[in-house]
Request: fold
Amino acid sequence: MLKSWKLKEIVLMSLFGVVFGIVYLVAIHFGNIWAGLIGPIAYEWMFGIWFIVSILSMAIIRKPGAAVLPETIAAIIEVMLGNAVGPRLILSGVIQGLGAEAAFAATRYRHFNLAVMMLAGAGAAVFSFVYGYFVSGYAALDPSFVLLMFTLRVLSGAIIAGIGGKYLADGLLATGALRGYAISRTKQGGAGA
Amino acid sequence: MSRLLHDMNPSVKFIIVTVSMLTMAFFFNPWTPLLFWVGILALQFTMSRINWKLWALMMLPFTLGAVGYLWTTLVFGADSGGEVIGSFAGIEVTDEQWAHAWSLTFRVMAFSTLSLLFAFTTNPVTFVMSLMQQLKVPPKIAYGTMVGYQFLPVLKDELTQIRQAQRLRGVSQDRHWWQRVAGTRRLLIPMLAGAVRKAERAAFAMEARGFTGERRKEFYRPVRVSGRDYVLAGVFLAVLAVSCAAGLIMGK
Amino acid sequence: MHEHVISLADVSFRFPDDPENTLNGLTFEIQRGERVVISGPSGCGKSTLLYLLNRLYPLNCDGIDEGDIHLFGKSADDYRPGEINRRIATVFQDPDSQFCMTTVEEELAFTLENLRVPRADVERRIVDVLDQTGLANFRQSVIQSLSGGQKQRVATACALISEPEILLLDEPLAHLDPLTARNFVQWLDGLQRQTGLTVVAVEHRLDLWERFFEREIVLGLDGQMIADHPSDSKAPVAFPQSATGMTGRPALSVTELSVEISGKQLLAPLSFDVEEGEIAVIAGPNGSGKSTLAKALCGIYKHSGTVRSPGTGYVPQSPEFLFLTNSVADELAFSGLATTETLNDLAERLMLTPIWDAHPFSVSHGQKRRIAIGTMLADNRPVIIMDEPTSGQDTAGLQELFSLINERSREGITFLIITHDMEFAAAVADSILLINDGRLTGKFRAEDVWADPSLLDEHHLLPPRGADRREPTFA
Reply:
């Protein structure tokens, strides 16, 4: 799979991972550790932030693996930067990435419109939730509560990652920085072969 | 023996941490995660030299998170039968729910401690080199990741410059989180556009020095797996096994 | 003796997205040990040519090439990926983005691993190249903590460690200040004499290289070769003469300004005045506090003391850092302070009308600078500070910058310009503020600075060559 990848594309995904990492830390970071007190549901709505890098990279590079690789690389970089969540992130990164990848694979990497991107965001959310259900023991929670968490996460994936990713990809395309990448070749970023 | 964990092979450490985590997921009694947590703390205390003050600071948000887990599980616990052992504010709690709540709480503590153990005792560069040498992560990905890591100070500085410039244009610090999330577009577009240019330059520089992404047979600084790593892995697994077994017996 | 290490026969090249060829019918040979520079205006394809020689292209951009490139007597297409890079090494222009490891030693080892140098040989080669390049003390240094000039030396060491026969240089001085650049060229000159390497460089500012090159291949805008002749040392960039725009009215008045950030004093109290329409250059060594002063003046940094100004704007080295919207028109209108007439007037004066609806990121660097100045003027900031606008500029870019500043100054706009480029300063400046180690040495008339070698030396500046191209109109 890696044969068809140019090094510049891999380095690009890696730098994207770093950019999202620091923008998150510096600009959004809620600086509010008390949110933890609210319990696991406090962070559900913002899960989509973690999936954006997958969707943005796929929108730009449009190759099999362009969703799962950046999420994995971003996770490794987070671990290198000393993220306290630690090595767990790598496994969850791979799993989330696979969720987004599944949506693009299902459309055979032919369509990159908003609907597919939202589907990919939702896919990442579903995969990550199944993994979280197992690792964090959601089985011990009331099914209706679990359903609420699940709904929030899927919405977050579809909206923040799907719409946000599309929005960023279009914004970046307009800057003219993406010359030479697949997104610039199919003149408009929408659907189409 | 105080620096043993720092010298442990990072890939072995990574696998042990992941295996322990996945194993914990099967246990819903409070004893297994509690014992494992205590065991990990003991290992870290005897086999590493770390800044415990910083450790405590980083542990704080996780501890709050654990409290969040405790009450969430008590209030929204699954109805899994068992005797009602108490009630407050109209919510009845069964012994089963009580056990689950503490189990999940200790699980959070055990995971966090394990994560911090990894973070505090692992050199990031050695970790990636080890992923490539032991776990056969392709060099393109390993070195691609290294580039990202090297760019951290450069990109951080760029973010500062952009925020200063935008503040001059009259963009003020957004107060609410939703404004901040929406406002990140203004920061992300210039950062990402710059990243595209830098990525190409860095990749070209690597290729111009003969990097093809082929697997290498020899390394300047090989990261090795030694007998000591197997022993340490054995110690971790023993702590894990004892916690599981003791939990099963005590949880009856 | 006359061995051709590089030979091109009717080589053309086209990017897949472009209808036109970037390079057109190039034919030339380069002999072993030659020092050749490929020059031409920006966009003439000279970097593309370099990337064809080290084989980054055509693969990396899926480009379409025609004609024959022979390297060391063998067709370039017959080399396996990475194979040619043992014999042809490259140093790139951006000191920040050509490394992937943390320390100098690791970066050198990375190159040797790529080339599959046996481990027994690695140590010797690292020691040798560090001695050869005079970097022995930097072996364990963290690369990102080094200065731009030091990073370029490390990049050169990384290139030389493969023991190449050809060294390619892709505008290696573009991001260095003139003094650092001159030192780099002298250092490279010694290395070339010692090794007999073939050196092929792409460069648009030949004056910085003095007599380094023997031969110059000149490309035209359409990617054709327009000259191939012995190189002579170049005259510096020429700027037109121009009268000052100073009106005699005060614009910026600074009294006892000092800056302290997290307990550290970055600027000691300083005072100076600048007139309306005056162009003042701020110069001094790296890290001496020039940018701190700029940021304090426009209100990014907190400071003590007083600054009286009708409104101070700031244009960073990357003007796009200021941009917030998706079109040039929105960019100027962003603050809502300017009336439609003012905006139309600015568009006219700054020549922004043709790009009025374009995305501000997608235009040329010179145009971005115009937009940035436009935003500052639209926000009623008639005192404008520019941070290193000369860095990385070719002749055309510098001349454009000159006329941009010069014309505005005659409209009554006041400029403070941070630059190391004394050629540019000599052409544009009414006065020079010298800063050293967080202190203002003083505000000088430009000619007084050129006449004082010790003052220049103290502030790590090179005197402008062929000074006095501008008449002192206020004498």
About this structure: Chain A is about 65% helix and 0% strand. The helical segments of chain A are 7-28, 48-61, 68-80, 88-106, 114-135, 143-174, 182-185.
